[in-house]
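F.,

This is the one I mentioned.
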């Protein structure tokens, strides 16, 4: 059985939009302005190497599919060979190696995926998808790399939910120039 692991770069005010600078957000690339240090880089590499599959929304998928196939190195090699699942009602023929489009009810499709795929199924970015997964209690672990910056505008990770979603902090550390890595899992009960 698989685990849905959400990983996000976030500002102190919860903005997750365009940390890499590829989406034309006015503060695009904000995560590169603060050093996460060797320990932060190792955290991201370990996370990638332990992933068994990627689960992405269409916009994030298209950005990754454009960027990663032409890159080399441990991250790129892993991203390019592992199974990739993209939630989309409009994407017809994904060209990135080993990609499958999930159609229909997102919660049902992801619940099926968790049954079929072993190991960590990692979600990067994909804010709308993550909000849906959180709403349907499908997230097994939430990993936030919180950067010490307030952006004041942009897409935020957490939106309206139909009920309270209690979490428990299972790990935390400060890396680089004050970047907090916070790892949460659903709190039971």
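My design for it:
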């Amino acid at each position: 059985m698989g685990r849905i692991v959400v990983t996000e770069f976030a500002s102190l005010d919860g903005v997750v939009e365009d940390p890499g600078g590829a989406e034309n957000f006015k503060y695009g690339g904000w995560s590169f302005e603060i050093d996460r240090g060797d320990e932060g880089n190792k955290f991201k590499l370990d996370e990638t190497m332990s992933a068994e599959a990627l689960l992405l929304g269409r916009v994030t998928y298209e950005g990754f599919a454009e960027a990663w196939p032409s890159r080399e190195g441990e991250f790129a090699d892993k991203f390019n060979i592992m199974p990739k699942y993209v939630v989309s009602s409009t994407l017809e023929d994904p060209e990135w190696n080993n990609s499958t489009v999930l159609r229909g009810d997102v919660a049902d499709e992801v619940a099926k995926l968790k049954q079929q795929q072993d190991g960590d199924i990692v979600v990067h970015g994909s804010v709308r998808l993550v909000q849906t997964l959180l709403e349907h209690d499908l997230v097994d672990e939430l990993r936030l790399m919180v950067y010490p910056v307030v952006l004041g505008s942009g897409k935020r990770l957490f939106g309206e939910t139909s009920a309270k979603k209690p979490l428990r902090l299972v790990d935390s550390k400060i890396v680089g120039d004050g970047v907090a890595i916070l790892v949460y899992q659903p709190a039971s009960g």
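The CA atoms of residues 107 and 136 lie 7 Å apart.

Talk soon.
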